[in-house]
Amino acid sequence: MIDVRVLPDREAVGVAAADLIDAAVIERGEQVLGLATGSSPGPAYAELIRRHAQDPARPYGSTHAFLLDEYVGLPPDHPERYARVIRREFTEAMGIDAGAVHAPDPDAPDLERACRDYDAAIAAAGGVGVQILGIGSDGHIAFNAPGTPFAEGTHVARLSSSTRRDNARFFDGDPERVPVSAVSQGIGTILRARALVVVAMGEAKAEIVARLLSSDPTEEMPASALHLHPDVTLLLDRPAARAADRS
Ligand code: GLP
After folding, report:
1. How far is residue 145's CA from residue 28's CA, in Å, rounded to a whole number?
2. Exposed / middle / buried, residue 189 (Cβ in 10 Å: 0-12, 13-18, 19+)
3. Cβ of 149: how many Cβ atoms within 10 Å?
4. Is residue 24 lining ligand 1, measured as CB closer than 6 Å?
């Protein structure tokens, strides 16, 4: 059962997500964070950075982090490479060593092998203890578009035109500049994390949140796989919860 919590605003969502991540890292001693990019995790990252600045002895400095996905085809120094985004927006300020932040390698000559290596690296690190996740407007998680088999591990994913339109805001508003593919953790990978903290905010997510909550698990709706996980918390602000209230 997904534990759904509706919070008054984005900041409150960030505080609630930070509380859940702290519970995993500080109380349960989890050492491996699963990190997402996109705007949804922003308030959670901001709150964790605020707490870390107040008390740098919190145990985040010794954690490892694994990113959900990475675009294929961007130069290594491109500001939208997710490995750079996460360093800039979160891990650097948290005192997490750059070498402890792992992303799928989109430049590997053998991408299939890089995908297998990434899943193996997550397993070798002990598995993800707590994974933060956003939801795309078509119901994708990481870059798993509708129709992706739930059992799949890390793989090369094609971006749908709606996802490229959604992400154009990070590429001067031009969907054509958004890469056409990415290396993405599969739903099978994501479901192996021990706890999932899912964040959705704003009116634009209201319909997809309502669909998720009313849908049985189906590959046509990737986020519906969350129903299969034993420890999922879905944090919503009021606008994102609006359509679910009506259903
Ligand atoms: C991107 C990412 C996802 C993210 C989603 C939602 O495509 N690959 O991991 O959850 O979009 O993004 P946002 O949080 O900006 O709405």
Report:
1. 32
2. buried
3. 11
4. no
User: Which token pair is 92?
Assistant: 């650097």
Nearest CA-CA partner of 137 in 43, 207, 228: 207
Q: Which residues of the chain have pLDDT under 50?
A: none
The pLDDT value recorded for residue 191 is 98
pLDDT computed for residue 221 by the predictor: 97
Report the nearest-CA residue for atom 14 of ligand 1: 40
* CB 123 within 8 Å of CB 194: no
| Structural contact between residues 184 and 196, judged by C-beta atoms closer than 8 angstroms | no
Q: Which two tokens stand for residue 28?
A: 């349960």
Asked if residue 40 has its Cβ within 6 Å of ligand 1, the reply is: yes
Q: What b/e sequence results for 124-142 when a residue is b if at least 16 CB atoms lie within 10 Å of its CB, and e otherwise?
A: ebebbbbbbbbbbeebbbb
- DSSP for 152-220, please give it: --SEEEEPPHHHHHHHGGGTTT-GGGS-SEEEE--HHHHHTSSEEEEEE-SGGGHHHHHHHHHPPS-TT
Residue 129 in tokens: 């203890």
What is the pTM assigned to this prediction?
0.96
**Widest CA span of the chain, in angstroms?**
49
* Residue entry with tokens 């060593």: 97
